[in-house]
Specification:
331 residues; CHAD domain; 2 domains; 78% helix; globular
Length: 331
């Protein structure tokens, strides 16, 4: 996974608003500075890195939402979501093509031919996605978005700080240090992850498992963000959470493939009942064989990743991951 840059001169003893502003502006620039690399389609890692940077930025925005006047940032948030979606479409196609290429190299010639046609389909979809991305991260649009983001963030902080002194919530947040806010955010993220862990006991609940993956990602980002405040002792916890994120991410990818291949096979079955011309029968059979072979692969891979996630969570329970994290945060 792409590693975030360290944020220089981040004062953990400053107010939470001051620290959050520093983080958000740095993360925004970190994302925008990856624009050129993302548009270099000869290296698919460029899109991946910019997408991850956009996720870190949006995760930080969610972390600090209660310390700002949230609605002042609504417009910027929507635009960032659109940008992230454009990056995601290209990245998803890149990953799909990469996975299919690898699988085709292991398949029999007949199946590989069918997989090759599926790769060609994904490449056409990627070209469309890339064209959308070029528009989504236009240089002028990105510069305008940054100007809007900076202005909206300043306004959101100013309005949040203008809360009357008798507003207990406002008084509390204004007096919170960035360090103490980090402790609270990490604890909150972990409790949410723990709540969602019940999905591990429902192996076929794809949506709930996906929600758990997203929460694991957010916890990891928050741990990494505040690691320096605890002399990097939180990085070992971040590594553990990263493992869970990876397993659940791979599981989710398998679910997407299983759904797509199931739909594809259903359509192929419907076409078979129309008795295709003899000249197309061989091609049709190759496509069907490839779809079934791929479906079998992704069902097995899903089971392996599910078992890995369940085993990792069980290990955390035995080692009392929660208590270890809480103890570390109290130091």
């Amino acid at each position: 996974m792409a590693k975030a840059k360290d944020i220089p001169d981040l004062n953990y003893n400053a107010s939470v608003q001051e620290g959050a502003q520093r983080v958000l502006l740095f993360r925004f620039d970190e994302m925008i500075n990856l624009r050129e690399a993302a548009l270099d389609f000869s290296d698919i890692e460029g899109v991946h890195n910019m997408r991850v940077a956009s996720r870190r930025l949006r995760s930080a925005l969610a972390d600090f939402a209660s310390y700002f006047r949230r609605r002042e940032l609504n417009s910027s948030r929507k635009k960032l979501k659109t940008l992230a979606s454009a990056l995601g479409e290209v990245r998803d196609a890149d990953v799909a093509i990469q996975a299919l290429d690898k699988l085709a190299s292991r398949a029999d010639a007949d199946v590989a031919e069918g997989v090759g046609r599926l790769i060609d389909e994904r490449k056409r979809e990627r070209e469309d996605a890339r064209a959308k991305l070029v528009k989504a991260i236009d240089r002028d649009d990105c510069q305008n978005l940054r100007a809007e983001f900076v202005m909206s963030l300043e306004k959101a902080i100013a309005k949040r700080n203008s809360v009357q002194e008798n507003d207990l919530r406002g008084a509390h947040t204004n007096g919170t240090s960035f360090h103490d806010a980090g402790r609270g955010l990490i604890e909150e993220r972990y409790l949410q992850l723990r709540k969602l862990s019940a999905s591990l006991f429902r192996p076929h609940d794809s949506e709930a498992l996906h929600d758990m993956r997203i929460e694991a990602k957010r916890l990891r980002y928050t741990l990494e963000l505040f690691a320096a405040a605890w002399n990097d002792s939180l990085l070992s916890f971040a590594d553990e959470v990263s493992q869970m994120q990876t397993l659940l991410g791979e599981l989710h990818d398998c679910d997407v493939w299983i759904d797509a291949l199931g739909t594809r096979l259903k359509k192929q079955h419907a076409r078979s009942e129309r008795q295709p011309d003899n000249g197309l029968i061989n091609r049709w059979q190759q496509n069907r064989n490839a779809s079934i072979w791929l479906l079998q692969h992704f069902v097995r891979a899903r089971t392996k990743n599910y078992q890995g996630a369940l085993a990792l969570w069980h290990e955390w329970e035995k080692l009392d991951f929660k208590n270890s994290l809480t103890t570390q945060l109290c130091q």
